[in-house]
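Saturday, quiet lab. Running sequence design on the structure tokens for the scaffold JK sent over.
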């Protein structure tokens, strides 16, 4: 039997700033995708992307004229809703950089629109594809009842980071530390343990000249009775220090560490083999993670079994983030 050739997915990149460079790593050597256009209002960013992706700049209003199958949204977070909405409304699938949107209502509207248009929404949450995280997810039931979880994100974002672009550090377009740096951590909490039953916490702007918090700490109670603490700060001096999680459960103890959960430092679980992983964090977070994301998106578009994060999955994370902010700001419980 002759194999039927599968046409590459025609891709347009909307937004060619800092994060777009990681998408280049995901697409460059993947024959399942063909970048047919890029879009950015900044001439310097657009010029770089034209060279990098070997394609031409397009006006956003005319993107549908080049007939893309998939639009990759890499614009500032506060613009994600508008750009994704326009693409879906034109019958184009979308892959949105995290966070999908800056509030749940907008993402709910996008999910509803995608269903009406029979299109798909995907969101970049590449930490799910780490070997360490995959092993934890696959063997979660072997832990038995989960009693206590401690998660932290200790990263560095100096003032100069927020001064790179006018939108950074603004509530309207950047959102907050949980939407930006913390989105992956909250996604893992949601994916592994579900939606919170109760949250208490506090947040402060201790050092950075920005419109939202630079440090946040909270306690979380899950439906199964397990308790978690989560602390996030961007005030580490000079470098990202660690993103880690420790789980105390009925059948053992697990700890993931490294720059972004990529190291399985402790796996002491009854009835399972000891396991350690130590991916290279820099390669994974800023290279291999997007590569694996695109592999899974290609499967989804071919209607094959996949692990791509869709709009409904991303909505759980956005609701979780909103619940933390509500609890920290006005003492509400979700």
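Result came back. Writing it out in full:
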């Amino acid at each position: 039997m002759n194999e039927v050739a599968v046409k590459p997915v025609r891709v347009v990149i909307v937004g060619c700033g800092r994060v777009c460079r990681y998408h280049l790593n995901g697409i460059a050597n993947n024959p399942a995708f063909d970048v047919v256009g890029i879009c950015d209002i900044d001439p310097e960013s657009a010029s770089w992307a034209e060279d990098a992706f070997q394609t031409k700049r397009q006006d956003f209003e005319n993107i549908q004229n080049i007939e893309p199958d998939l639009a990759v949204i890499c614009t500032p977070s506060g613009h994600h809703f508008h750009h994704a909405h326009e693409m879906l409304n034109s019958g184009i699938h979308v892959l949105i950089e995290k966070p999908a949107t800056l509030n749940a209502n907008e993402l709910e509207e996008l999910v509803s629109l995608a269903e009406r248009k029979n299109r798909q929404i995907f969101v970049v949450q590449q930490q799910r594809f780490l070997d360490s995280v995959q092993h934890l997810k696959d063997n979660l039931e072997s832990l038995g009842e989960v009693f206590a979880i401690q998660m932290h994100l200790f990263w560095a974002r100096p003032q100069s980071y927020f001064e790179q672009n006018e939108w950074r550090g603004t509530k309207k377009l950047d959102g907050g530390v949980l939407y930006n740096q913390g989105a992956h951590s909250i996604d893992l909490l949601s994916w592994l343990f579900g939606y919170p039953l109760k949250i208490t916490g506090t947040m402060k702007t201790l050092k950075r000249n920005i419109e939202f918090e630079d440090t946040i700490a909270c306690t979380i109670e899950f439906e199964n009775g397990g308790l978690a603490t989560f602390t996030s700060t961007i005030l580490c001096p000079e470098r990202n220090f660690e993103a880690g999680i420790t789980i105390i459960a009925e059948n053992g103890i697990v700890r993931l560490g490294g720059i972004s959960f990529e190291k399985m430092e402790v796996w002491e679980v009854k009835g399972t083999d000891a396991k350690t992983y130590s991916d290279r964090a820099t390669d994974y977070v800023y290279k291999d993670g997007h590569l694996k994301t695109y592999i899974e998106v290609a499967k989804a578009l071919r209607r094959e079994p996949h692990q791509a994060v869709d709009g409904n999955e991303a909505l759980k994370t956005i609701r979780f983030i909103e619940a933390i902010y509500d609890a920290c700001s006005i003492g509400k419980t979700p």
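Notes for JK: Residues 280-284 have pLDDT under 50 and may be disordered. The two ends are 56 Å apart (CA to CA). Ask whether to fix the surface positions before the next round.
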